[in-house]
Amino acid sequence: MYLLWTERPVRLPREEETHAWMETNRPWERFGLDLVYDNAPGDWIHYSEIFHATWERAREQGTGFLNVESDVIPTLDAFRAVLGCPQPICVVPYESYADPDAKIRAAHGGPKNWGAVIEERCRGGWDAHNARGGEEWAVSADLGFVRFGPAACQKVLPEESKLRLNHGLLHWTIFEQFRSKDPRDERGRVHLHWPGLLQSHLNFDEGDLAHWNPGDYATLLRTHRDYMTPGVLEIMRRYLGGSL
Ligand SMILES: [Zn+2]
Question: Residues 159-172: pLDDT tens digits?
């Protein structure tokens, strides 16, 4: 079983806690995982490439892989849960703070915005909501802490699941591959494990900015300014000059 752990070449503040946890607990040694560590320069396209390459290695060797993103703070129990589960795809959800609404809801003690999507039948069709603590099956999830078992990795990911634009999101294309084509199927195939994890992604930072083209900066500033780090605001200031 591979363990894919990716970081930026120059670590972002939101990656520090995860890095410290990984170095302290060394889950690859503790759980006998084959570590694939990557901190090569790159953006989301690079992440997509290393994700696909690890998937392909797992497929060829008849094993699976566990993906840990650089800003999700794991726990040993989370590793034990997904490694000890017989289901093909297991996720430990985490709060998606990058969504400004989620931050506001969390600040007011409202429902957590867990990064997994559940679909349910409703009058006239289907309704979707973010997972609530304890819900067991989702149709898709963020990729921050996910284990794809050997059976899941036998699927050949199609060419179109490789990102060619920074502002694509890999998890949409990956989980789409496992969505049931049977309209009578009542549940998704992504197995959720609780309690959820924390992540350190509290602000819109340089990593997020890498998804966007400078032509979008003015719009971005209007919608995300309250959540931008000083570093991002400085980049904006340099680009937009007096209009900031
Ligand atoms: Zn499971």
Answer: 877 877 666 667 77
Average pLDDT over all residues of the chain = 88
Domains of the chain: 2-199 (3.90.550.40), 206-243 (no CATH)
Give the distance (Å) from ligand 1 centre to CA of residue 105.
28
Longest dimension (CA), the chain: 57
How far is the centre of ligand 1, averaged over its atoms, from the C-alpha of 218 (Å)?
A: 42
Over the stretch 180-224, which tens digit does the pLDDT of each residue have?
A: 877 677 788 999 999 999 888 878 888 888 878 888 899 988 888
Q: Which residues surround ligand 1, an ion (CB under 5 A)?
A: 85, 87, 90, 191
* Ligand 1 center–CA 79 separation, angstroms: 11
Cα(32) to ligand 1 centroid in Å equals: 19
What's the predicted TM-score (pTM) here? 0.88
Beta strands at 190-192 and 89-91: parallel, antiparallel or unpaired: parallel
Distance, in Å, from the CA atom of 223 to the CA atom of 1, rounded to the nearest integer, reads: 41
Burial class (CB in 10 A: 0-12, 13-18, 19+), 191: buried
